[in-house]
Structure prediction request, 697 residues.
Amino acid sequence: MKPNKRESVFSKLSPNAFKSIFDLGLKKRSYKQLRTILFTTMFGMAMLPLLLVGGLGYYNYKDLLQTSEQEQLEWQLDGSRKSIEHMVESLKSIIQFAAKRDHFIELLLDDHLKQLYVRIQSYYPLLADLGVIDQNGIQQAYYGSYDLQATDYSEEEWFQKIFDRGVYVSDVYTGHRGVPHFAIAVANYDPKTHTSWVLRATIDAVTLQQFTNTIKTDATEDLFLVNNQGKLQTSSLYFGKSLSQFKYSTEPGIQHSVSESGEHIFKAVGAIEGSPWKLVLVNKRYIHHDDWKRFQLRLVLIILVSLVISYIVTLSLVGVLTNLIRKSDETQMAMVQEAEHTNKLVSIGRLAAGVGHEINNPLAIINQKIGLIEDLLVMSEADFAHKGTIQDSLKVVNQSVDRCKAITHRLLGFARRSEVYAEQLDINEIIREVLQFLDNAMLYNRIKLELDLDDDLPLTTSDRLQLQQIFLNIINNAIDAIGKKGLIQIKSQGSGADIRVIIEDNGPGIAEEVLPNIFEPFYTTKETGKGTGLGLSITYGLVKKLGGDIDARSRLGHGTVFTITIPLKN
Amino acid sequence: MNKENNSTIRIVIADDEVEFASTLATRLELRGYVTEIANSGERTLEAISRQIPDLLLLDLKMPDMDGLEVLAKLREHHKELKVIILTGHGSFSSGNQGMVLGAFDYIMKPVELSLLLEKIATATAAK
Prediction:
């Protein structure tokens, strides 16, 4: 069968826990587990796409921002680098220009170096001093605030290389002065003396500081210069004063790193051509930091709200669903139990009827034989030994047969014809008929009767004899239960497509643990010999046969109420 | 025991329980009735077609034929035959059904002889 195959594929694919939970067969299931699985599945299904889209949006936007961030940093770096290069270049050209115009010998003369110093300083107030160095590294002339005349530079590295390079720009240093400076040296050749010489200018590092301060824009948090050894050449906002060590890499390019305190650091490094310096740009925040924070907040808010709404909706939905399943299970369970109960009654009934029939026949023979013996005893005129005892014994045997007869007749009641003779009946009339049989019993036991019969009751299509027997049994039971002195109330009323007869007594009531068993055959609480334990089960069977229902409610010490429901049409 | 006027009354007892039928027959004979026993439905029909009795005591449960069936068949030819149904069913209903088919009365097994005698007297009084 195709549907079965499909089903088996499905069942193979689904996990075992699911199978047992969703198996709609009749059995106990854990509703807590069912609820958990349903909730997890539904909530998961609702949240998964949301989280996926949210995550995707988050990372894409972050990516976008980072790219734009990087581009902006690159532009900034490029612009700043060019400005500084330009500055360095112009400084160099001034010194170069001065060196070319003033020949070596001239500069050594008294006032010439001073005049040059004054001229340059008028453009560059931060020029600290000027020196003229011969090809042997000896400072031949000097103008400045220190006494550096005749200083020997021949051993210094820059001097050894200056004639190859032509121009040299030094790192920032404090030197003898104790104030940060840097030097620009320009090599030259004097054709008159045929010697090479060097013009060396020392410039206050404040120049650099001022310049870096000017090119710093609002978008840049920190901008400074470092030399090849990683020493700060200008002071930095985050990494200390000039000449302190910069502990991060100065590899040119753009880097993103996280500091020890967990701060994001965006760093752009670019080499300044013609100088030993590198420009470093540092931002600790994204340029789009506020946009990013706003986006994060919104995303979290949307997800949080969706989460809460999904949670509430799913939870209530799952609750309703689980309750529906539980109710349907309970109804099904009750129906099965009812069917099992009815089945049990029917099979016990059949068995009882069979036994009853088998016993009834030998009983009939015993009964006839005793009758015959009694007949013969009466006929025999002669008295003989123990004749009286025999007659007495036979009487007792007869009484016992009568007791057996009562039982077998009730047992046989189960095997009553199954067809129902339907006729139009007035239920009230049947109740009254039955009560006629019981008048004497009630009078004798001083039991009061209260009738509350609805005169407008519609006619019922049902079986008269069976209805009689039903009411007879229940009222008889009530009389037996009360014993002496009490009250029986009988009420009839229409109820939709049914008629309801309520028979209530104020007898001792039925114990709670006994109540569920009262319709079972052979279940009796009457003393041995008094009841067969069949009355109520026969009644139950009859009511069911007529398509009706019977229900008993009882409270110990207060009495019992039987409610018999008979359909208007069977 | 009163045997008066009973000697002319002939009763067929139809019951498959031989002991029951024979004992009942003996007791009725002690009271002057003339009896004949038939142990099956077939034999009952046979006995009646041989000679119509004054009364038929008919058990409802016989191996070859249901008592009601026998009754229905008898009704075709012997409408006037008086029948008292013996029923072990413990219910009025099959007795009732018999009454619908024209039985005179019914009595439940085990049979209370005094009650049966009353019913026999009533049934045969019209004779």
